[in-house]
């Protein structure tokens, strides 16, 4: 299959490109920099120059492909309105290009906000609706194209897709521990995060692209609920700093913007996804990765 991948040189995107190429697919990666071009070509992928604001490149990449994986996002935490706007325009452009084709469109999302007081499941619809919602409401936007002949699929990632080289949320939490001289959790640390190793997440994307039915919601979740207290203890143990608690009111001051997320319970299951795709995670767990030095420790 000729697959167009946005975010192809990013954290999850790089692993996904490797997974797709390893399975015999042809990959065309969207690239905005010379470094990204060099990296993708070095892997054996083709390149389409452009970025999320280049709607013509997005449209051309989708039209010329047999399947699309959309993993790119601006992740501008200082201007989320702009990130959400760009995300919605990008997904709409890709979906419109695929109308009536029956081709797969895998769109990245997350498990945050799916449920209160219990782990989120694939049966839970995304509460993000409309342009002003998180990620521009793109899960619901993409799935609405199922009735227009697009095999749209939502891939919801755990809040930490971890591994050696991860520069996402877990790296920010570890950086806060170095900066503050203590490894903290919020409150009693009973809030939990789901987690998945990047290799397992990439394999899920590939299986979803190949097999998932139109309208499927897939959960890239290997561990349902890792308590934030245990995450803080693992980081503290490796850094050799004390473990402490901060209040929810002080979380953002201590951690930066990530503190608001670290205070939340972001647990989720993946039972349906595993059964649907015969997906069995095999990568190391989050605490194992932390203790092995995946975050530069």
UniProtKB/TrEMBL annotation:
CDD domains: SDR_a7. It comes from the Bacteria. Residues 3-212 form the NAD-dependent epimerase/dehydratase domain. PANTHER family: NAD(P)-BINDING DOMAIN-CONTAINING PROTEIN-RELATED, PROTEIN YEEZ. This is SDR family oxidoreductase. It comes from Actinomycetospora aeridis.
């Amino acid at each position: 299959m000729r697959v167009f991948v946005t975010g192809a040189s990013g954290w999850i995107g790089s692993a996904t490109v490797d997974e797709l190429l390893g399975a015999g697919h042809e990959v065309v990666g969207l690239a905005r920099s010379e470094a990204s071009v060099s990296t993708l070509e070095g892997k054996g992928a083709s390149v389409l120059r452009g970025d999320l604001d280049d709607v013509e490149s997005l449209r051309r990449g989708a039209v010329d492909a047999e399947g699309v994986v959309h993993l790119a996002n601006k992740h501008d935490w200082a201007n989320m309105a702009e990130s959400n706007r760009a995300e919605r325009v990008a997904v709409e452009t890709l979906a419109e290009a695929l109308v009536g084709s029956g081709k797969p469109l895998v769109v990245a999302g997350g498990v945050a906000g799916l449920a209160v007081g219990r782990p989120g499941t694939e049966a839970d619809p995304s509460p993000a609706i409309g342009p002003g919602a998180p990620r521009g409401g793109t899960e619901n936007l993409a799935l609405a194209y199922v009735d227009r002949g697009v095999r749209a699929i939502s891939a919801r990632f755990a809040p930490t897709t971890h591994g050696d080289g991860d520069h996402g949320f877990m790296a920010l939490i570890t950086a806060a521990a170095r900066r503050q001289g203590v490894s903290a959790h919020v409150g009693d640390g009973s809030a939990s995060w789901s987690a998945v190793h990047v290799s397992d997440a990439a394999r899920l994307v590939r299986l979803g692209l190949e097999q998932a039915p139109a309208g499927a919601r897939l959960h890239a979740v290997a561990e349902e609920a890792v308590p934030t207290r245990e995450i803080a203890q693992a980081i503290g143990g490796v850094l050799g700093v004390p473990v402490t608690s901060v209040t929810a009111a002080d979380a953002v001051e201590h951690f930066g913007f990530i503190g608001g997320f670290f205070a939340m319970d972001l647990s989720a299951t993946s039972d349906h996804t595993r059964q649907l795709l015969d997906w069995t995670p095999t990568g190391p767990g989050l605490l194992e990765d932390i203790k092995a030095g995946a975050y530069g420790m």
